[in-house]
Structures are given as structure tokens and as C-alpha cells.
Amino acid sequence: MKTLKDVISLKFKTSESEGVIFHGEGQQGDYITLELKKAKLVLNLNLGSNQLGSIYGHTSVMTGSLLDDHHWHSIIIERHGRNINLTLDRHMQHFRTNGEFDYLDLDYEITFGGMPFSGKPSSNSRKNFKGCMESINYNGNNITDLAKRKKLEPSNVGNLSFSCVEPHTVPVFFNATSYLEVPGRSSQDLFSVSFLFRTWNPNGLLVFSNFADDLGNVEIDINEGKVSVHINVTQVKKNRIDISS
């Protein structure tokens, strides 16, 4: 396929921070790859480079964050020549590709959910997507529907299920006055706590616990949008540790 215009759209949700969403490449050196990296969306695109090195077409754009939250996110890529609109959850970013070429020349298959092993270092280091996709549309073709009806020829479909498995987690909602109190373990030398949270509020107490035998306490809170950990120990000279991120 040699295209001047492309429109690619899909929705996804995942709890993984890395994974190739779709990929296509051609013998002329053109390629397009959309992937998650560190829970951000990265679009790599090359409409062509020349062997002399005077035309370098590689273009990389990053958008979004925390996309591994297992919520649905929508992506639309609209390309007309070198002009690209990349829309993630209604937030549009406009850019122009590097180089001098306008056509995307893909003469191999396009893969969704991963990329075929090509022997190149780039394909070996990339993870396949793990999660759910829906409403995959490539230049007017409803890929999801075609895959479900087995109308994609040729195609290689491995371990696809046309349903979305929900994670076995139970969220808890707290308002400004509610809290959850659980018994501590007084015989333990180790204090360990882990949790996921989402909030629009810049301030709030997340965790508080007194240590046994009046040895101090630990407090985790949000202060002006930063998570802070405060550890107070009563029996040592440097009796307070503060960490924020």
C-alpha cells in the first residue's frame, strides 16, 4: 500500500505499561509503530529516508501518561502527507514529520497487538500488547469486525478472545469524612503497605499508622499534588524522615 492519507482509530485498555498497539513497515524503509512505553503513548513514523543521509525521515511523538490504568482510552491518527493529527482522549496534537516524502509505503502486513519478529534489534526488544482493544478502524476498514468474522485474508490470529476480562480488583471510594481502619500486627518488625489511588484533590491523607510501644508513626499524604512519606521515630536523635515525589 502506498498512501497519501491515513486514518487509524481504536480504543484500548490495559494494566501493562509496555506494548506494541500496531505496526507496519515497508521495503523502502517506511514504517509506522504505535506503542505504549512507560505507560505513555509513542508514535514512531518514517515516510522515507535516503541512503546518503541527507533526508532523515524518522519522527517520534509522545503523548499521555498513566495509560496503564485499565480504563478505556481512544486514539485517532489522521495523516495527510507529512501533516499528522494525533488525538488521545480528545486531546489533539498536531505535528509534521521529518524528511521530504509524503507517501507511506507499506508493502508488508500491518499487525495489531504486536509486531512480527524481523530479526532487527527493535523488534526483539518490544513487548506485545496485553489488554483489550475495540473499534479498530484502518482507513475505513473495521478490523475488529473483520477479525471476528474471519474475513481478514491473509491473517494470523493467535490467542484472541472476543471478550474483555476484567481484573479482580475491588475499588473503594472515600469521601472527605470516610476512612478504613484495619488492625495492625504488633509482633512484626516490618511495616509494608501498597495501594493504587486516583484523585482530583491536591491534598489529602492516604495512610497513617502508629508504631507499637510508642515508637513513633508513619504518615503518607498528598501535599500540593506530591506524595509525601513522613516517618517519625521517637527513640533516635534524627527522629523524622521526609520523602516526597
TrEMBL record:
SUPFAM superfamilies reported for this sequence: Concanavalin A-like lectins/glucanases (SSF49899)
Pfam families the UniProt entry points to: Laminin_G_2 (PF02210)
Residues annotated as domain Laminin G: 1-164
InterPro entries given in the database record: ConA-like_dom_sf (IPR013320), Laminin_G (IPR001791), Neurexin-related_CASP (IPR050372)
Name of the protein in question: CNTP2 protein
Source organism of this protein record: Psophia crepitans (common trumpeter)
Top-level taxonomy: Eukaryota, Metazoa, Chordata, Craniata, Vertebrata
Gene this chain is encoded by: Cntnap2_0
